[in-house]
């Protein structure tokens, strides 16, 4: 697979209308800029690439250029009336939710702030389906079940920890106010052997959407996601975190219709 530094090439716009853009984000690409860049200058992100794409559509100068954008796989043939602008007339784009840098898959952006708020303020109500596929270390027999725990993010390490629900605990009443209830459905969908190591391909569906939820729950059951050194992985057969946001469906904030998107699994996940 071709690479761009540590980033897989090929961010793809898979849906666009007058209010929304849905992309398939490659592993290694930030969803949106953070304040951790130091003195290295602005980092290329999914958000910045879409800003450039929109600028090109509106004829606003100052983008990185068609060639660079083509390298990232953004479809330059789309021609639509684009969304909001800032006070200088430059296009704006708003991230609705985000994925970790090393997670690939579906990310939703809004073309105006009102659409962003309409989705974010009602996210748990409008989202109908969120499915991920991961490759976990070790062999897991065919299984279909739920993982439930409390999650807590340490304020210094920023690492998320899982704690067992005790008898009498309810999602609405955590033992500590900083803890959050997390629930993940998991189903074994395949097995792989790579360099004589056993791996299991698992489909996860989120009931809650906590930070690093799938990564933490995978470690908690004793089968970390391949390539996830932060959460206990001992191997990295794909040269990346083996987690992909494959399916997302939600109620469109303005049409009222349920829209459903899927993205193909990275080819590496089908290695044998």
Provide structural commentary:
The protein is an alpha+beta fold and 272 residues long. It is 14% helix and 32% strand. Strands 3, 4, 5, 6, 7, 8, 9, 10, 11, 12 and 13 form an eleven-stranded mixed β-sheet that branches. Strands 1-2 form a two-stranded antiparallel sheet. A hairpin with a 2-residue loop joins strand 1 and strand 2.
Topology:
Blueprint: E1 3-4, E2 7-8, E3 12-16, E4 20-25, H1 46-58, H2 66-71, E5 94-95, E6 104-110, H3 113-120, H4 123-126, E7 127-137, E8 144-153, E9 160-163, E10 180-194, E11 197-206, H5 213-220, E12 243-251, E13 258-262
Parallel strand pairs: 6-12
Antiparallel strand pairs: 1-2, 3-4, 4-6, 5-6, 7-11, 7-12, 8-9, 8-10, 10-11, 12-13
Q: What average pLDDT do the residues reach?
A: 85
Strand content: 25-35%
What CATH architecture label of the largest domain applies?
Answer: 2-Layer Sandwich
How many domain regions?
Answer: 2
Low-confidence stretches: 1-7, 60-83
CATH domain class of the largest domain: Alpha Beta
First-last Cα distance: 16 Å
Helix content: 10-25%
Multimer state:
single chain
Gyration radius, in Å:
19 Å
Biggest beta-sheet profile: 11 strands, mixed
- Summed up, the helix count is 5
Helix-strand category: alpha+beta
CATH superfamily of the largest domain: Pseudouridine synthase
Number of strands: 13
Envelope shape: globular
Predict the CATH topology of the largest domain: Pseudouridine synthase
Order of helices and strands: EEEEHHEEHHEEEEEHEE
Short characterization:
By secondary structure, this protein is α+β, with helices and mostly antiparallel strands.
